[in-house]
Amino acid sequence: MLRRGVALYAGTPAAVIAQSSHAAEELGYHSFWLNHPGATDGVAGLADAARATHAIELGVGVVPLHTRPAASVVAGVREHALPVDRLLVGIGSANAGAFRLAREGASLIRDELHCRVVMGALGEGACRLAGEIADGVLFNWLTPTHARRSAEWVGDGARKAGRPIPKLYSYVRVALGDNARGRIEEEGARYAGGSYQAHFERMGAQPIETAVVASSPGEVSEQLHVWQGVVDEVVLRLLPAAMSVEAHLELLHAGKP
């Protein structure tokens, strides 16, 4: 059975993070994630979710190690007393030394925190490396077809290293109601205009083709069905109509497992 997680923007108000993570746990989601965009600290934001929950896995996806070193991530987890038994630390990098940073970062974080390390991976080389060194792999802005291909690369990397295949997660943007398509397109344009441009060109798809655009709550699960058998867990990256608790809860209920 395909598990479901949920992810929010790390700059979401603390009260919304707390109430959304609590609701996600009550509704049966397997994991709750925050991203780590720029100077917005997803590691610190998870402290609000940790206080509001007791069992759901908590992930940050992903910390760019070329701007925030792994040692700083370790310090942040300890400062905010995040529960390492539930923690998924996502790492990634977009610079020329990305693979070296990933190898060193995964080793340091695992040795210091004894938690699971999830690597963000797009291209073939990153997927193979993730299979070799990570406990999980987080895909982003992928169609199910390309996710299957990426999963094969991850599996090849793991087999070559003689280790189990990491758990496979995929962010899937979800928007509901009025202007749902506009929210997805706006989010996609931000990525396609930056480091993800080559990714979309390589995949031969537009950002909207990787997302769920729903006019009614029942359409969310219907559209997520295409991910069955592709990854271990689909993580609904919520794009609510507002930064309110109500708007987040509407999406959480629409996409509940």
Short description:
This protein has 257 residues and is of the alpha/beta class. It contains 10 helices and 9 strands.
Structural class: alpha/beta
CATH topology: TIM Barrel
Q: Tell me which CATH architecture applies here.
A: Alpha-Beta Barrel
N→C terminal distance: 10 Å
Low-confidence residue ranges: none
Look at the structure and give the CATH class. Answer: Alpha Beta
DSSP summary, beta strand count: 9
Provide the CATH superfamily: Luciferase-like domain
Report the total helices: 10
Total domains: 1
- What portion of residues is helical? 40-55%
The shape, in one word, is globular
Main beta-sheet annotation: 8 strands, parallel, barrel
Q: Could you spell the SSE succession in H and E letters?
A: EHEHEHEHEHEHEHHEHEH
